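Team,

Forwarding the record for the chain on the shared tracking sheet. I've put the sequence and predicted structure together so nobody has to dig through attachments.
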Amino acid sequence: MNENIEEVMLDLLCKKAVFGLNEQEEKQLAELQQNAGEDLSASFELTAARLAMADLDSSEAMPEHLRSRIVADAEKYFDKSQAAIRPVLDTAPKGSIFNWLGWAVATAACIALALNIYDNRQQSPLVQGRAPTPSPTPQKTMSPSQMRQQLILTSPDLARGTLGPADMPQLQPTGDVVWSDAKQTGYIRLAGLPKNDPDKETYQLWIVAENQNPKTPVDGGTFDVTSDGEVIIPIDAKVKVQNPQAFAITIEKPGGVVVSTQKHAALAKRES
């Protein structure tokens, strides 16, 4: 077998191990190996597999028991495979490709095979073993109490007021109000107001602010009291609030009103 034919055979063996062959190339390789008297495809494919696995990315942690089992199975497999191939190489007939080209050429073929695998790995994220992009961690939904506490801790401009009885002596509400002009956010912490029937009435908050006529305070939103004990209500100001001085709660018809004519059920004057 001349040198050109040997080079073609080596090239086809490397290509088959790394990329695979088309039908015409498979036929050509089969004829060359038949003339050579041996089939070296398995040896080259085993070499390709070992080279491809040599530096797989293992940055993502694997359970230790699973890793140990895979390593043990792999070593057992490769030991058996090499044991089966080694006699073929040691007792290769005189016309063997390793005798035609010598061990130096066979080594060069393995190096070329390694370079092909490395180049292919650089172009394929899957071969590199890149971990999939992790899904974003869902954020926890904070409760009104937690949001109120966060506002208190993060707002240097916080306005505070203690909530107490107003024009209805039969009602004895307690609690407080916090508000931040910078964040245009605030909360009412309230206890002592009776539960209301939403079909008949609702509570409505009013904010007396520097930027609003005291006769028409800012609508801070409506809310219902549906349970006993303390409740925390987010303030829903309908317009921007600047430097609030007082917070009042009235009892209105369902849906609330634009301008209240009712007495105050609770009142908080700004203290800080």
